[in-house]
Amino acid sequence: MKPTLKDVARMAGVSTATVSRILNSTDGYSPETRLRVMEAIETLGYLPLRPPPSTFEPIRPAIGLVFPKVSSMLIGRVLSGVQQEAQKRGHLVVVCHTDGTLRSTLDHLQLLVQHQVRGVIFASEILQREYHELLLQAGIPVVLLSSMSYQFDVPYVRCDDRRAACEATLHLLNLGHRDIAILAGARSDPFSSTARVEGYVDAHMQLGLPIKEHHIVYSRGFSFEDGQEGFHFLLQRETAVSALFACSDELAAGALLAAQTRGVKVPDQLSIMGFDNLLLTETTVPALTTVAQPFEDMGREAVQLLLNPTEGSRNRVLPVRIIERASVRSLP
C-alpha cells in the first residue's frame, strides 16, 4: 500500500497540515521539524501528488480561491481582501467559480493542483471528503472561509453565524417586535441557514418568548428570487408578522420587492432586516438594515492563515456589527 500524507505526519509527530506546508516551502517551521518531516518522507518513500515539472512552471507563487455558485457581490468583497493580502506577500490568486457540484469542484481543484498553487482558500462551501483527500494527497494546505468542518481538522476564518443571528433577532425584539419571521434560505446549509435559525431561536429563548414554527420559512437558496418566493410562501401561511429577518441581503431584497408589490409598506407595516451588508442594501428603497460581515478582512485573514499558519490563532472568528438603515422601525 502506498504511504499517505497521514503516514508521514504520524511518523514525524506533526499534523498533516504541517507536512503539506513544509512540502510547499511555507515559512514558520523550525529546521528540526522540517528535518523530521523530510526524514519521514524519505523513510516511507512518500511521493506527493504533483504533476511533472514540465507540466507547469509558475511565474510567481499562487494561491487558489474556490467559490461555489454564490452572489457575485459577495465574491467581489472577499476577493478584494484576498488579492490585497496575496499581493503584499508576492502571490497571485487563481479564482475558481464552481457550480457547487462535486464534479465541477473536483475539476477546479485538479486545475489548481496542476498549477502547483501554494494553498487553497475554500469559500462558502462544505469541504467534502473527496476535496479534502485530493488536496491532502497533493500536499496542498487549505483554509476554509465563511465555513468550518466538523469532519476534518482544517483551519478556518469565519463569523459566528449563530451568535450574529441571535444579535440581529434581539435587535428586532428590543425594538418591540414580537412576531418575527425568518427567511432561512436552503435548509441544507449548516452555516448560513441552520446556524442562523438557531440564533433566531436563541434570541427568543433569552427573552422567554415562544417559538412559532410557522414563522420559520426555508427556500431553495439565498437569491433575490428565493426571497420573493419565500415572502409569498409566508403570506400563504396567513400569519401576521411585524418584522422579517432574512438570512442574506439578497433574500431580504427579494422579500422587500415582493412586499411592495403586494402593497405592504416597509417599514410602516413590515420591518425587514438582511444579513451580509452587500452594496445592494444601500440602494434599495428603503435602504436595508443588515448584519455586516467583514468580508475583506476575512479574505485577508484567510491568506495570512494559509501562508503563515504559525502566526496567531489557527482558527479565526471575526466580529459582526448591525448596520441600522431605513427598513426597520421600532414599535410603540
From TrEMBL:
Task: Tell me yes or no: is NAD among this UniProt entry's keywords.
Answer: no
The family database entries (SUPFAM superfamilies) matched by this protein are listed as: lambda repressor-like DNA-binding domains, Periplasmic binding protein-like I
Name of this chain's protein: HTH-type transcriptional regulator DegA
User: At the top level of its lineage, which domain of life is listed?
Assistant: Bacteria
Q: Where is the HTH lacI-type domain?
A: 3-51
- Keyword DNA-binding applies: yes
Sorted alphabetically, which PANTHER family does this protein's record hold?
HTH-TYPE TRANSCRIPTIONAL REGULATOR GALS (PTHR30146:SF109), LACI-RELATED TRANSCRIPTIONAL REPRESSOR (PTHR30146)
One Pfam family for this entry, by name? Peripla_BP_3
Q: Which UniProt keywords apply?
A: DNA-binding, Transcription, Transcription regulation
Give me the gene this protein comes from.
degA
InterPro entries to which the protein is assigned, alphabetical: Cro/C1-type_HTH, HTH_LacI, LacI/GalR-like_sensor, Lambda_DNA-bd_dom_sf, Peripla_BP_I
Molecular-function GO term, any one: transcription cis-regulatory region binding
Which stretches make up the HTH cro/C1-type domain?
4-47
PROSITE patterns, per the entry: HTH_CROC1, HTH_LACI_1, HTH_LACI_2
